[in-house]
Amino acid sequence: MMRSLSTAVSIGCLFVLVICLMLAHGFFDKMDRVSIQPVFQTMDRIELQDARSALENGGLPALRTYLARLDADFGGEHFLLDRSGRDVENGVNHFDLLPPTPLTHARGEHHGVFDIEQQSDDGAYWFIATKPIQSRPVSFLSFYLLIIGIVLSLGALCTGYIVLPLRRTAAVVGSFGVGNMGVRIRAKRKDEIGILARSYDSMADRIEGAFKRERQLLQDLSHELRAPLARLSFSTNLARTAEDQQAALDEVKRDLDRLGFLVSELTALSISPLGGGEDDRRNTLTDLETMVAESVHDCRLESTAKQCSIVCTGSAPELILGRPEDLKRAIDNVLRNAVRYSPQGATIEVVLKQSAEWSTISVRDFGPGVPKDLLDRIFDPFFQVDPARSPSQTNLGLGLCIARRAIESHHGVISAMNASPGLRISLAVPNQLRSVSDAGTYVKEREVEASVDR
């Protein structure tokens, strides 16, 4: 197999060139034999008959007049010879002008002179025309050269329009593969090569974004682990010498609980694929109403501690297809986030809606809300709007990230918007698992609905 597309293009152009030249040569040869030569032979016979008729009817003066007119019209010299090759007009021997026996007619170039020889049917006369060639006439060679030029131009065009862009694409992909994640093709073409380039650029953007997010995740994780580990070391040393060892051990227990909570959250974060990819775990029919009721019940301790009430409205009577453990975790995290940021004694609103294709759970708190420019970031790992004023030491900024991955793994949509006051987080999943493009359409519909509600 050929390893270079340019080599394949060159060989293909050479093959096409050979075929075109063979076809052109066959076409021109057939056209000369079938169409051109018979016409000229007919003209030569007519001129011979006219010269003979002039001689027989008007004598030598009429013959001289006719031949002189041919000389003036076509150039060169025209003769009427007898069967032996002598000029009928002046008796000069022109035997050297006759074609070799047994030819009775011929035309062509000989030593820079174009000759026409035509014998009468009875063999009594020869019509001869000679004309020196001043400049070579256009021959079929010009057409051959034209074909060669066209094929070579097409080869160069294919190389420049197809091969070179593909080589550039391969170079960019190779550079990306060795770690230069900022390189892009940036093609403006609308054809398949342009589609390929834009698909690569889009893929590279997603990979670069995922790589940066994961690197940031590792940095944040190391930061989150450093503090409790340092406190554990200090608390352990303190427990050995402190008078109140129970208090020191309580500090150790709190730090261990924090580390355990962090590990469990990271484990949950790793279960769902990055970016809402496919999950090979089994999907089952799930009752959202029951699931929401269970989440509300599970959050009763947190809500009771803040004297908050959780009010559920709406319904979702139809079962949906999904993974109950992921959906339950997403609802729990969103609901606990709402309780965490709700004011003392506030109400948390949970609304269920179900259409023919989508099931939606909306959770609203009446807390401080989120700055508009940070709404999209609250789903990033370890992100906190104001870490210094975090209401809970277990708030690691992973809950909403886990919820997002769980929903996106179902090809669903999770979004946040300020409710003035408070924050509303909506989780929407398709009743049947669908493509990601359907989720994109749902996002646009939600944006339109939100603009109308405002």
UniProtKB/TrEMBL annotation:
Q: Which organism is it from?
A: Tunturiibacter psychrotolerans
Tell me the compartments it is located in. Answer: Cell membrane
Domain Histidine kinase per the UniProt entry, residue ranges: 220-433
Read off the PROSITE patterns from this record: HAMP (PS50885), HIS_KIN (PS50109)
The signal peptide here is none
Q: What is this protein called?
A: histidine kinase
Span-the-membrane segments of this chain are 6-28, 141-164
* Known EC number: 2.7.13.3
Does this entry carry the keyword Secreted? no
- Record flagged with keyword tRNA processing: no
Q: Catalytic activity, per the record?
A: ATP + protein L-histidine = ADP + protein N-phospho-L-histidine
Q: Where is the HAMP domain?
A: 160-212
